[in-house]
Structures are given as C-alpha cells and as structure tokens.
User: What shape does this take?
Amino acid sequence: MINTSTNLAGIKMKSPVITASGTFGFGREYGSFYDLSLLGGITVKGLTLKPREGNKAPRIAEASASILNSVGLQNPGIEVFLDEELPFLRQYDTAVIANIAGNTIDEYCEMAERLGSSVDGIELNISCPNVKEGGVAFGTKSQSVYEITKSVKRHSCVPLIVKLSPNVTDITEIAAAAQEAGADALSLINTLLGMAIDVHTQRPMLANNVGGLSGPAVKPVALRMVWQVCGAVKIPVIGMGGISTWEDAVEFILAGASSIAVGTASFIDPFAPVRITEGIVQYMEKYGYSCIDDFRGKLKVF
Assistant: This one.
C-alpha cells in the first residue's frame, strides 16, 4: 500500500507536496479549480505586520524558461490574514504554513507571537532587507541568520522553517547557522536575483530594475543547493525551485528533501501540484516503494 504521508518537523501532511509562498495567494483562486485538501500543505503569500502595497508596476517579466518578479510583498497584513484568510483555509484538510517577512527582528518576533498556534508552521523569509544593518538581507550572512532564527524561535510555538536565499557564497554555511540557532526545518531555494532589459525602450523590464528569478531555469541550481544542504544538516528540508513535473519533485526527494514546494508551475497549470502528487504515487507504485523515506536521499552519486 502506498503511503505518501510526511512528518515535517512535527507538521503532519498527507503528501510531501506543498505550494510555495508568493505563488498561491491564500488559496482562494486555486480552490475554485480543485479541492485544496488534496495538497500536503499550503504556504501562504508572504505576510508583513502591516498591510503593504508592494512595488510599482511593471512587477512581472518573462525570461528564458523562467519569470522575474518584484512584487514587493504586497499583502493585506497579518490581522486580515488571521481574520479573513485563515478561516477560509481551515475549511480544508491541509497544513497551513505562514510565510512572514519584516524589516527588523522585532517585527518578525511580533508576527510569530501574533500567529501563535493558529497555523501549523511558520516559514521565515530572511531575504528581506534588515533596515538596522543598512538594508543588507538577513539571509546573506551566517551571523544575521543565526540571530534572527534564534530570536524568532523563542517567540514561535509551532515549527519554524527558515527559507534560505541562494544569493550567497556558501549555502551550507547559512544552513548550519539556522540549524544551530534552533530552526526546525529549512526551505530552499528562494529566488535568484536577476534582471531583464527591453532593447527597444532601453530600460529594465521591471520598475524595480531587478527581481527574483524563478521557474524551470533555476532548477539545476536549486537541486544542487538542496543536495548540499541535506548532506550538511540533520533537520528536514523542503526543496523548491523550478519544480514543474513529478520527475522534478522526485529528483529533489532523491537529493534528500523531505518535502517539495511547487511555485511558478502553478501559474502555467493551476493543477500542477495535484498532477505532481499523482505522479509521485505512480513512481512509487512502479518501483515498489511504500513510503517516501524508501527513496528519499537515495541518490547514487559517482
């Protein structure tokens, strides 16, 4: 019998397939296509303490096998999420993970406290600029990763997942710092920093000039980083970055990921997370696997 259930640092899910933050909103649009209970988990749109309008348009641009975005964390704020969006999500039998972002450690801690145990897990977006450190992203230095993770962990009563930025020199060093500080799990990768230029207007295609690159083009980088991190830490890892098919998902699990997150693919095919889940089951049936751990981390390296 096939069992796709996954326990991610205490977050119990019926499958390893999660939706990635920033690509699924709060589930309402996708809920009109299929039953959200089919998903292992939903990581909601990035939340900030207060409502945020985000960056000015244009905020999305196509690139080769990928997209660039500089949405700028547009969201209604944590109170609207708790009052209006979370009750909607709780209609479904799926784990709900809140992605939180802030400009100071205090903001992150306040959000973790405010969320309490209303969600199943908190994903810490550390790609945000630390205003007290001159705008340098929290996630680019081991010391700042350690400090913010340790601080938020003290204020979180649900599993804390630290989302790692790929825009660093050594991803394993950053992962180790998060683990040492008390992270319950890691998710990676966040978007790579990229740019696109319109040769006719001779201007960047994004009003913010640069943005986050996601989609199939980043998968080889994401897969390599997930494999490295899984070999360097003992806590669970959510693999993400360009996962579009069930084969992509299985690659990440073979590399050591305990769960995987589907992001940009949902823009192309709203059913992508469901199709990927079905594909994983078929793969398990073909090779005689009864549970995810039967092939997780079983990459045969040369």
Q: What stands out?
A: The radius of gyration is 18 Å. Residues 36 and 92 are 6 Å apart (CA to CA).
